[in-house]
Each structure stands twice: as structure tokens, then as C-alpha cells.
């Protein structure tokens, strides 16, 4: 009866173990996905990093860090499953839970950025215009040329710096502007060929969508992490139960052996000593 129960527990543990291996493989893919998403978003932000604060990069940096941590934790879980070590598996479950908390924090940070995003971006973009010739020339040139926009809310944002920075004087729709050459739609920067739309709406949209991608991605991955915690708990429980059953079986076998030895000794005592009587030939 005990052997049958051991076989059943052993089969259940193998099933959970294989499920944990599958979950670990999924975690490796998830880790790679987090690193890819974080790196891609950092690359997108790199085009206008002068307009962003450290807070805007915190979610993507945390996503990359979690991805690398997941690789290590998945390896730890595989070792624990192979060794059937309760300590390893419990540590694995604990680390998965901590990663789950980190992923939820990524979602919170990502969504919190969207609250005052427009106000923050407008403030930083207007501030960077003051340092256009020295520190932010390349950023503004790339942003305005690639996004086909001009200024924060429009080309008029450059007007106060026109003579200070020797910007191009242009006329469009009976309005005068001082703008950098990157605000022009053609190579010669002729009058009437200016980008009228500001860069703020486009940048705000890009940053906002990236934040949504990070937040939703981290939230979905958190559910997968939760499955891993459950698998690890079930495996640890199965290992503990199987080891307990094995110890009980050993104890019962030892007890049974001792009882048989004691019974055999008692029977020998009842039979008494064996007397040796010599035969006539031996005498």
C-alpha cells in the first residue's frame, strides 16, 4: 500500500516538475521579451533624450534588469527541479514572487508617467531651446527633421531666440518666424516651406504609447510569473511529502526487521539448549 502511494506521489511530482521546466522555458522567453522591449524603448527615447527626465527611463531600465534576473532565476529553478531540493525550490518561488512585485512596480511607474507627461515635456523642451547652439542642437535638428515638426507648439516658439542664435528669418502666411533650418520642408529653406505643427504632440504620443506598452506587458507577464510560483509551491509540497513517505517506509521496514529478529530470538530461547549425546562408536 505504501509503495503504491509512493508511486502515485512520484508520478505527480514528475508531472509538476515537467510543468515547472515548461514554465522556466516560458520565463526565459519572457526575460528575452522584457529585455527587447526595454532596449527598444530606450532606443526610441534616445532620439530625444534631452527632453526626458530620468523618471522616463526608469521603467525601461527596470524592465531590462528584470529580464536578466529572470534568466538567473529560471536556471535556479531548473537546478532545484532536477535535484528535487525543497530549499532550492522554495528559494525559486520566493525569487519569482519578488520579480512579480518588481513587474507590478514597472506597470505602476509606466502608468504614472502619463499623468503629467505633457506638462513635463513642455517644460523640458522649452528649457532645452535656451541651450540650442551648444548642447541641444543635434537633438532639435534630428527631432524636427525626422518628425517634420517645429518648436514645442509651433515655429513661433523659436522667435525669442532668433537674433540671439542667428536663426533663419522666414515668412509664411503673412507671419514672420525665426527658425532653425531643420524646420524647413525643403533643402533651401525657402519662405512658405515651414513645418507648422509643433513637436510636443508627436513626442508625447510616442512616450505615452511606450509607457502603455511597458505597463501592459509587465502586467501580462506578472500572471505568467504567478503560475510559476504556484508550480514551484506544488513541486516543493510533493517533494516534502515524498521524502516524508520514504522516511516512514524506512522506519516501518526497520521496525518490522527488529520485530522479526526479536521473534526469532524468543523462539530460540523456548527451544532451550541443544544437548550433544555421543554415539557408541564415538565412545
Automatic annotation (TrEMBL):
Record has Membrane as a keyword: yes
Pfam families, alphabetized: Tetraspanin
The regions listed as transmembrane in this protein's record are 21-41, 61-82, 94-113, 211-236
Q: How does it sit in the membrane?
A: Multi-pass membrane protein
Q: Which family does it belong to?
A: Belongs to the tetraspanin (TM4SF) family.
This protein's GO CC annotations:
plasma membrane
Q: Which UniProt keywords apply?
A: Membrane, Transmembrane, Transmembrane helix
Q: Which organism is it from?
A: Acanthoscelides obtectus (Bean weevil)
- The primary location reported for this protein is membrane
Cell location: Membrane
The family database entries (SUPFAM superfamilies) matched by this protein are listed as:
Tetraspanin (SSF48652)
Protein's name in the database: Tetraspanin
